[in-house]
Amino acid sequence: MFSKSGPAVPELVDKCIGSRIHIVMKNDKEIVGTLLGFDDFVNMVLEDVTEFEITPEGRRITKLDQILLNGNNITMLIPGGEGPEV
Amino acid sequence: MSLRKQTPSDFLKQIIGRPVVVKLNSGVDYRGVLACLDGYMNIAVEQTEEYVNGQLKNKYGDAFLRGNNGKSSRTRHLLFLTTWWHLCRSQHDIE
């Protein structure tokens, strides 16, 4: 008897569509944006995006448009997250 | 607020012919007009400008940026690790 393994990752990501999401990358970078969509590789389409580069000064770059984020370097997704404290 | 679900392939089809910024993991930016792309996110960019640390370093009439999506993790011969494509709605100095 095998117990149910729970919701799959794509199912969980799908629930975030339309909401803010905070994405932590493998390098010292974090992205906050509104999730518009994603694909099987968890490449993500985001809008109203802010990019944070985690340096001692806490650098921040804001882009208001849409981006396609390559999923290869994503480490963690935080639904509803605001991003790091600047 | 308009909620429009948009997958990455929809996004890429939508931005063909528009000015884009392709930002690589290395921090290098490529700004140009998106000419075409394929299922692996290899892309061709026209009138490309290469920015390193925010400074213009090179200009290319045509640039090919290799995508790296795919199920194979064996072939790690990645020329570029693309971070994102930024759709430029506002005016950028492409000319």
TrEMBL record, chain A:
Keyword annotations from UniProtKB, A to Z: Acetylation, mRNA processing, mRNA splicing, Nucleus, Ribonucleoprotein, RNA-binding, Spliceosome
One GO term describing the cellular component: U6 snRNP
InterPro entries: LSm5, LSM_dom_sf, Sm, Sm_dom_euk/arc
SMART domains named among the record's database cross-references: Sm
Keyword Cell division set for record: no
An example Gene Ontology molecular-function term: RNA binding
Ranges where the Sm domain occurs: 8-83
Localization (cell): Nucleus
Source organism superkingdom: Eukaryota
Keyword Phosphoprotein: no
Family matches, as Pfam families: LSM (PF01423)
GO biological process: mRNA splicing, via spliceosome
Main location (coarse class): nucleus
Protein role: Plays a role in U6 snRNP assembly and function. Binds to the 3' end of U6 snRNA. Plays a role in pre-mRNA splicing as component of the U4/U6-U5 tri-snRNP complex that is involved in spliceosome assembly, and as component of the precatalytic spliceosome (spliceosome B complex). The heptameric LSM2-8 complex binds specifically to the 3'-terminal U-tract of U6 snRNA.
Complex and partners: LSm subunits form a heteromer with a doughnut shape. Component of the precatalytic spliceosome (spliceosome B complex). Component of the U4/U6-U5 tri-snRNP complex, a building block of the precatalytic spliceosome (spliceosome B complex). The U4/U6-U5 tri-snRNP complex is composed of the U4, U6 and U5 snRNAs and at least PRPF3, PRPF4, PRPF6, PRPF8, PRPF31, SNRNP200, TXNL4A, SNRNP40, SNRPB, SNRPD1, SNRPD2, SNRPD3, SNRPE, SNRPF, SNRPG, DDX23, CD2BP2, PPIH, SNU13, EFTUD2, SART1 and USP39, plus LSM2, LSM3, LSM4, LSM5, LSM6, LSM7 and LSM8.
Homology family: Belongs to the snRNP Sm proteins family.
Name of this protein: U6 snRNA-associated Sm-like protein LSm5
Organism listed in the record: Oncorhynchus tshawytscha (Chinook salmon)
Automatic annotation (TrEMBL), chain B:
Record-linked Gene3D superfamilies: 2.30.30.100
Cellular-component GO terms for this entry: Lsm2-8 complex; nucleolus; P-body; sno(s)RNA-containing ribonucleoprotein complex; spliceosomal complex; U4/U6 x U5 tri-snRNP complex; U6 snRNP
All residue ranges annotated as the Sm domain in the record: 7-79
UniProt GO MF annotations: RNA binding
InterPro entries, per the entry: Lsm6/sSmF, LSM_dom_sf, Sm, Sm_dom_euk/arc
Record's subcellular location: Cytoplasm; Nucleus
Highest taxon in the source lineage: Eukaryota
Primary site of residence: cytoplasm
Keyword match Isomerase: no
Function: Plays a role in pre-mRNA splicing as component of the U4/U6-U5 tri-snRNP complex that is involved in spliceosome assembly, and as component of the precatalytic spliceosome (spliceosome B complex). The heptameric LSM2-8 complex binds specifically to the 3'-terminal U-tract of U6 snRNA. Component of LSm protein complexes, which are involved in RNA processing and may function in a chaperone-like manner, facilitating the efficient association of RNA processing factors with their substrates.
PANTHER family documented for this protein: SMALL NUCLEAR RIBONUCLEOPROTEIN F SNRNP-F (PTHR11021), U6 SNRNA-ASSOCIATED SM-LIKE PROTEIN LSM6 (PTHR11021:SF1)
Quaternary context: Component of the precatalytic spliceosome (spliceosome B complex). Component of the U4/U6-U5 tri-snRNP complex, a building block of the precatalytic spliceosome (spliceosome B complex). The U4/U6-U5 tri-snRNP complex is composed of the U4, U6 and U5 snRNAs and at least PRPF3, PRPF4, PRPF6, PRPF8, PRPF31, SNRNP200, TXNL4A, SNRNP40, SNRPB, SNRPD1, SNRPD2, SNRPD3, SNRPE, SNRPF, SNRPG, DDX23, CD2BP2, PPIH, SNU13, EFTUD2, SART1 and USP39, plus LSM2, LSM3, LSM4, LSM5, LSM6, LSM7 and LSM8.
Protein family membership: Belongs to the snRNP Sm proteins family. SmF/LSm6 subfamily.
Name the UniProt record assigns to this protein: U6 snRNA-associated Sm-like protein LSm6
Gene (UniProt): LSM6
